[in-house]
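Dissemination and training. As part of the outreach component of the grant, students in the summer workshop were shown how a complex can be specified as a set of sequence lines and then modelled as a single object. The example used during the hands-on session is reproduced here so that future cohorts can follow it. Participants entered these lines:
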Amino acid sequence: MNGRSDSPAITFRGVTKRYGGQDALQPTDLEIEEGEFFCLLGPSGCGKTTTLRMIAGLEQNDAGRIVIGERVMSDPAAGLFVAPERREIGMVFQSYAIWPHMTVFANVAYPLEVRHRPSAEVRERVAGALRLMEMAHLAERPATALSGGQQQRVAIARALVFSPRVLLMDEPLSNLDAKLREQMRVELRALQQRLGITTVYVTHDQEEALSLADRLVVLRNGRMQQIGTSEELHTRPANWHVADFMGFRNIFEADANRVSGSEVLVRGEGLRLLGTATSEITANDRVKAAVRPEDILVTDSPAGENLIEATVEVVEYQGRELAVEARTPSGLALHLRTERRLAPGDGVTLTVSPDRLLVYPLDTDDRTAAALVEAGAT
Amino acid sequence: MSVTVDRPAQDVRRGRDPGLRHRLAERGVDRQLAVLIPAVLFVVLLFLYPFLYGLQLSFAPAKGGPLASYVSFFSDPYQRNTIWLTLRLALPAALINVLASVPIAYRMRGNFRGKRLLTIILVVPITLGTVLTAQGLLNFLGPAGWFNKVLTSVGLLSSPAHLVQNYWGVLFSLIITGFPFAFLLILSYLSGIDPTLEQAAATLGADWKQRFRRITLPLLAPGLATTFCLAFVLAFSVFPSAVLVGNPAGETRVLSLAAYQAAYEVYDYSLASAIAMVMGAVELIVIGLVLLWRSRLYAGSTGGKG
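and obtained this result:
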């Protein structure tokens, strides 16, 4: 599986997909490296599953070119489209898509049988794949007699048994219960590292994406928002939409008041806070300020910079920490985490370190939306 | 049919023996069963009673012992042969309708432009009725019909082919009127199969033939068996087209025709009833064989939207 070539395992060049006049995927360039665990992350309807299905050949792109390895799989301009069965990919579906009329063994053997492998090889490789997924003892069970987690394992064994070039997974863990999901996540990561197989994984769960991926991309409205390693996306979201997806629960609109270097003073909601600009921002711009709950601290000192007065409204017990929702006099709700035992009604002084308060420009979509709201109001 | 609806608590409290009531309700026995009464009455009065009446009539001939009607039917080759003549029409008609529906329905899963129009065109023969179909067949396939005119004028045939007033006319009529039923049933069975099952097979390397043979067909087979049974029963009771586009005195003298003649030409109601019973028995045997085959197939969930 390794060392096939130095070229990327999967390449998108200007790939576009439309559904009924809507862009499901806007022209996209993307390179997924050989052996990489790559996540497509985004809310439902963002185009992540469409992207995966275009790699699989279950959807046809309207423009652009999809290359797997050295082979062009789809290029509408050249009238070229390779059917899914000729792409040498293994795919795991959200619903598992286990064939209910077959045993576990027959399910896993099927990809080899359609390739006309000799039966001794089929037996050996199926046994190997089932052992890999710890399902060997259930080989003769009818597929419908399995639990969800076991069906999932069969689906993965089935997708790996013929050593495909690429493994595609469409929200494979979303139908499992929380405990099993975490366990499978660890197993998946270990499996992928051991096999070194190029994996493209679709999920709407940022925690899942961050923990699994070598690199990930955040999609929104059919457009790539940011691509990078988990750490890059987690610490430096490229825009406030990505920040929103990466756990910056506190995002509010404000005015940029003073800009010096990357340091920005923002005013809004009755607050005056120093933050860090993530891109070019000029004074008097409307901006979005974003901060994670864990970066808002409760302080006792009444003096200093970046202070926020607020009243505790909701307190959730979460073990060592409390998840607190506090409201500023202007009505802005702030989410924070603290080890202090606060109670609803308590007045608190909060503080944010300037390098943890990220300041983003409003993007074009928001300005359009704002203009539409104003036009509608008048 | 089981009806499981949570019953309000006070309803149980009012009952004299809530324990018994509760146990019965858990088995689906409760007051909601009353909604079945009209249907049960309907079945008893309009089906069960006439059937039992005919059954006893068949064992009560005017002359001879209780089995005399059956003896006279089976000992007369002209009568006995009607079983074979009817099977010879109904089995191929049902089989052709099922087999023709599968590829068309397979292509028509999912949504595409003009699907509704195409469905209407395919289903319209249901609304025509046998007489209109027979009329059309006589005009189209008759010795002076378009079909023969075209084939003789281009020189493919030297003399017109005999396609009506015989076996073929009835078979065509049965195919035309039976196809929409088979097609609609099979289309609904096919849409009940989760499409990701086939997509999974595609991504794992199976071409469409392999997918159809190993995934779709096995999941569809129980539905095909059921459809075949219904199409067969429909064709087996053929009557109008056997007269109108067939040869009712010869090769299309089907069972229903023999029963009609016994009842309304010879006025032997006992013989007519016996023929009707034979008809029912033959149908049951064929259906029984098909269902026996079906029981050996996978018949569980196909994951779709039903």
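Residues 62 and 292 of chain A are 39 Å apart (CA to CA). Students were then asked to discuss how this feature might be tested experimentally.
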